Amino acid sequence: MKWTAALQAVKTKLATARPKVKATHRWKTTGTSTTLLKFKSPRLFIAGTTSLLVIGSGAVLISSHVQASKSCLQIYRDGQYIGLVPNNPETVDTMNRVAAGYGVQFESTPVYTQVRENYPWQRVESFPTAAAVIELNNQPLVYTTSTESANQVLNNVKQALAGDIKSASHVTTSFVGDVKVVATTIGIADIVQPSDATRLLLHPQSTDPMSGRASSPAAQLNSGSHQATTQRPALSVQTHATVTKTVSLPYHVKYVKDSQLAKGDKKVVTDGKCGTQKETVSEIYLNGQQTAEHVLTKDTVTQPVDEVVKLGTNAGVASGGWIWPTDSHLITSPFGYRSFGGGQFHPGIDIGVPTGTTIHATNDGTVISAGWNSGGYGNWVEIDNGSGITTVFGHMSRVAVHNGEVVSKGEVIGYSGESGEATGPHLHYEVRMNGTAVNPMPYT
Question: pLDDT-based confidence at 316, cuts 50/70/90?
């Protein structure tokens, strides 16, 4: 059967007319570049998508029939051969419904042969079909079967890229750029199923062995300074999340100078405690990765407690604490004016101990005199403890250190006795501040 001139004109008009475009849904933020995401047209894909020529959404993918059937149909229009399709009920029914929808006729002839590898399937790929295109900044990214399918694809892509922010009290997501769905008419070879469209938008560089699709032209989106292996989606999703956080408020440390402590020594008087604060924070994510945040409100729950620390300033005291010079604490004569012997001033304390009792340095320092003292102290040791403080140990039976020796607190410096002007065995212990004798009790 030959086609009439009128039908030929209809077909020519369908083949040459530009697709009609109608905008539907739209999302807007900021712009970016776009590249059409489409399948290349290897044999198996074109044969399979030929069966999707349906006015509506009842398409069934039957690419497997190409491999399973040895029988094919040669399609003619007005006596002119235009293409080859698989000879099976689904394909024939689809071809008939397409022809009826466009008011044209075609004729077919069955042939029993295997389709050769280089068969030009592109002859039948240009049949126009109702579809929907997903656009970014007015540039097409991918074609799919309907506007409903395209919107579902965008919802799937948005959910995949936005991620799950569990702690947020309020979350809004939007595409970056002007993303919209447009109803259109396009050749069947450019249309992909919604699941394929989702994969193309999420993984533009991937290869789908099921369809024989090679790397998409959308891989150009990843060119430039990025490595070829970088996987960037064709669309980007920005997420704004409002979260409430409890943060710790640090405490301050206050130092109080103490001349009784060695220089540099510290003693905590009051422990510090951190406070707490609730913050409302706006977080911004791009494709699930946080890119920025800023604090909206702050509410102090508990105030921090300052830590108070004593800071030693006495350069001659290593540890800051003083010790008793002997094991015995028996004081036989205190510091100050005596009530006997004419009321003489006693510049130290006398500690009653047997001869040979070990005597210890009451703090760190340097020995400035060790040996016999002709002023009545007998065998003595004088130690410079720094910051104008010196300690004196008199009436020893013998000394165990020498001039210039550095001694540590608790170190044995000699042994008690009754040398010099002493009426019995004891230790005479003095503390001098800048050369003046002071009560040694605070330094024991």
Answer: low
Residue with tokens 């009784």: 260
Model pLDDT for residues 151-176, shown as the tens digit of each residue? 999 999 999 998 777 777 788 999 99
Domain containing 297 — which CATH number?
Answer: 2.20.230.10
How many Å from the N-terminal Cα to the C-terminal Cα in the chain? Answer: 127
Quick one: 369 and 299 in the same domain? no
Q: What is the pLDDT of residues 201-254, one digit of tens each?
A: 998 876 443 332 323 333 333 333 333 345 689 999 999 999 999 999 999 999
pLDDT digits (tens, 9 = 90+) for 91-113: 777 777 766 655 667 788 877 65
- Structural domain including 72 reads 5-217
The residue to which tokens 């396009």 are assigned: 186
Residue 33 lies in a domain: yes
User: pTM higher than 0.85, yes or no?
Assistant: no
Distances (CA, A) of 23 to 146, 182, 184, 216, 371: 13, 4, 9, 25, 109
- Condensed to tens digits (0 to 9), the pLDDT of residues 378-433 reads 999 999 988 788 999 999 999 999 998 988 889 999 999 999 999 899 999 999 98
What CATH number is given to the structural domain containing 439?
2.70.70.10
Higher pLDDT, 314 or 405: 405
162 lies in the same domain as 42: yes
pLDDT of residue 312: 77
> 80 and 205: one domain?
yes
Number of domains comprising the chain: 3
- pLDDT range class, residue 134, cuts 50, 70, 90: very high
Count of residues in the chain? 444
Residue 326 domain-assigned (yes or no): no
The total of other beta-carbon atoms located within 10 Å of residue 189's CB is 23
